[in-house]
Amino acid sequence: MMTEQKYLIRTMTAAEIALAVDWAAAEGWNPGHQDADCFYQGDRQGFFVGLLDGEPIATISAVKYNEEFGFIGFYIVKPEYRGQGYGWQIWQRALDYLQGCNIGLDGVLAQQANYQKSGFHLAYRNIRYQGVTGGLSSPSPHLVSLEDAMAWEDVLAYDDQCFPAPREEFLRTWCHQSGHQAIAYQEDGILRGYGVLRPCRVGYKIGPLFADTLEVAEIIFLALKAIPAAENTIYLDVPEPNQAAITLATKYSLQVVFETARMYTGQAPSIALDKIYGVTSFELG
């Protein structure tokens, strides 16, 4: 049971989001080095911290992309305070903030039943694959640097096919962040896919990886995979309904290491799952 200590839930400052990212690292979620700055751009009012007598003991993010869609992540309570009601309170704060939205999340499979009690329904699984960096990329005149050679409006238009709501500020920061590598595939002036490689606490993650076809996805994937100078670990989070994405992962001997349950409070958004070869992040969708 909760004690008589004062428990306060408030919006995080930008600096405090780094604390949530550190806690995520301690949970084994392996965040990116620049995630705090990138995520803050998603919704500067959508990150909450629970303080017990001034000490941070709980975090959650409830990023409201627009009035129709939001996404919950970073739901963490310090281990010694779990099972005492503090997590439930900050969870309710997140749901209240996103009231009226179709809310998504990527939850661990064991927590599906708990999320169902709050009105979430399973849409599909996301599967994390792990492999190694390096290898040969396929030389292609269609590959261009997203930062240098693409019209930003084209990137946003492509992203709109694969994500349920506009996310321009977040995506601009994500694609142009120091240390991130963003590559696009352009054919006859038309954007047919793009991907981002980001350095994480352990290795690298590729996400998003969006592409019109398996062939385009493979070319972008190999180019991103070959960027790190030294051999390291690489991760790709694949939506299970996209069998072509699973084919890509298995072709290069990536191994399944983790799964999440993608859940929504409303109907699963109408997005082009067949173009999603790599999820952007489990924290913000």
Structure description:
- With 285 residues, this protein is α+β, with helices and mostly antiparallel strands.
- It has helices at 14-26, 35-40, 86-97, 112-117, 146-149, 152-162, 168-176, 214-225, 243-251, and strands at 7-11, 47-52, 55-64, 69-77, 102-108, 121-132, 143-145, 181-187, 190-199, 204-211, 233-239, 255-264, 276-278.
- Strands 1, 2, 3, 4, 5, 6, 7, 8, 9, 10, 11, 12 and 13 form a 13-stranded mixed β-sheet that branches.
Helix content: 25-40%
How many E-type strands? 13
Distance between the termini: 33 Å
**Which of globular, elongated, flat, extended, rod-shaped describes the shape?**
globular
Order of helices and strands: EHHEEEHEHEEHHHEEEHEHEE
Largest sheet: 13 strands, mixed
Summarize this, please?
This protein is α+β, with helices and mostly antiparallel strands and 285 residues long. It contains 9 helices and 13 strands.
What is this structure's SSE topology?
Elements (H helix, E strand, L loop, with lengths): L6 E5 L2 H13 L8 H6 L6 E6 L2 E10 L4 E9 L8 H12 L4 E7 L3 H6 L3 E12 L10 E3 H4 L2 H11 L5 H9 L4 E7 L2 E10 L4 E8 L2 H12 L7 E7 L3 H9 L3 E10 L11 E3 L7
Parallel strand pairs: 4-5, 10-11
Antiparallel strand pairs: 1-2, 2-3, 3-4, 5-12, 6-11, 6-12, 7-8, 8-9, 9-10, 10-13
What characteristics describe this protein?
285 residues, alpha+beta, 13-stranded mixed β-sheet, 9 helices, 13 strands, 29% helix, globular
